[in-house]
Amino acid sequence: MAVQPLRIYPDEILRQVCEPVARVDDSVQQLLDDLGESMYAHQGVGLAAPQIGVSRRAVVVDVAPRDEESQLIELVNPRVVEFSEETIDFEEGCLSLPDEAEMVTRPGRVVVEALDRRGKPFTVEAEGLLAVALQHEIDHLDGRLFIDYLSRLKRSLIDRRLRKRQAQAG
Ligand code: NI
């Protein structure tokens, strides 16, 4: 297990559609370990494989408050199979878009199907922050970022800001 460096916008891997995992083998378990460690190290509530440079369909989330027991959920090939009609507004950020946060509107409840680290199917019914985090992370697997839900103006401001900062970072 190891903490991995994060891919930062506009890194192209963040815009790729990730490959489904054909078989949950050691390499996938290693990937889940790296995702979990990296998420905790960078103090995120979720992390998707492309954010650590791996274009495969795997994510982790843990929305438990930091002073409470962790509630790590590892999802391989996750899929949202039900969206509620009612929505929730939540201020989202992303470890790959540092220091940016904006209100995003999403379905307030979702049902997600995925495989666990042993390749066994399971279902998560989520609402509130967990529903938001799951949708945000699953979006990453399709190359979608939270800024895609914003107005064109807001999106281009953030785009310019992050490109400038990345250019300066070398
Ligand atoms: Ni993100």
Task: Tell me about this structure.
The chain has 170 residues and is α+β, with helices and mostly antiparallel strands. It has a single domain (12-169), classed as Peptide Deformylase, CATH 3.90.45. 28% of the residues lie in helices and 30% in strands. The protein contains three helices and seven strands. It has helices spanning 26-41, 128-141, 152-169; strands spanning 46-48, 58-61, 73-83, 87-94, 97-107, 109-115, 121-127. It has a five-stranded antiparallel β-sheet. It has a two-stranded antiparallel sheet with strand order 4-5. A hairpin with a 2-residue loop joins β4 (87-94) and β5 (97-107). The longest helix is centred in the C-terminal third of the chain and has 18 residues, at 152-169. The radius of gyration is 15 Å and the shape is globular. It starts with 25 loop residues before the first helix and ends with a helix. Nickel (II) ion (NI) binds next to α2.
